[in-house]
Predict the 3D structure of the following.
Amino acid sequence: MGYHMEYRDSDFFIKKSNFQRALARLRKNPDISVSGAKTLPDAFRDLGWEPEINNDGDIEYLYTHHYKLHDEDLSMLKAVAPCVEAGSYIEMSGEEGYIWRWVFNGQTFREVTPEITWPK
């Protein structure tokens, strides 16, 4: 089935020099099928994510139009996390107003939620 989600924002960066390493990590993951992809951007597209490439050939933005969170989304993020620049994030919203970011530290990623306070 899957959890309904919606893309909100991202600041996601992978240097072009890390593309081959990230693609190899995706191919090694048994939960992900990107065997036909020749490039990392193609692999992301195969998985339902659209990378934006800057003038230097780096990925500087990653977004999705699919609306269900599946195990392969998290497997993809886990696989490429060591290749993603520290401080990168992808922000999503889900069912019942839930908001979160997947935040990368240069080795792994974690899910964080905002603290919302109302003015008095």
Notes: The chain has one domain: 3-112.
